[in-house]
Amino acid sequence: MRPRFLGLLLCAATAAQAQPQTPPPSPIVAIRAGRLVDPDAGTVATNQVILVQGGKFTAVGGNVAIPAGAQVIDLSNQTVLPGLRMSRG
Prior knowledge:
- The protein is α+β, with helices and mostly antiparallel strands.
- The protein contains one helix and four strands.
- A hairpin with a 4-residue loop joins strand 1 and strand 2.
- It starts with a helix and ends in a 9-residue tail after the last strand.
């Protein structure tokens, strides 16, 4: 009986290790924009914060809190126009 018990225990341990692990969440990047152009609305907002996670905007606004541990890119003296990509030649 003991060999069967050990076999079941080994199978259970192997199955537990085979479970897919949840990947850690993507890091958050906070961009401080001095001026943020919204071409759709035809407006320019000042002193905005843009949060980006996993390559997508998650929040934009003047009252957006920057989460602890976020990488901060300070463009507070720059004009930001989201959506444009630089080509790598």
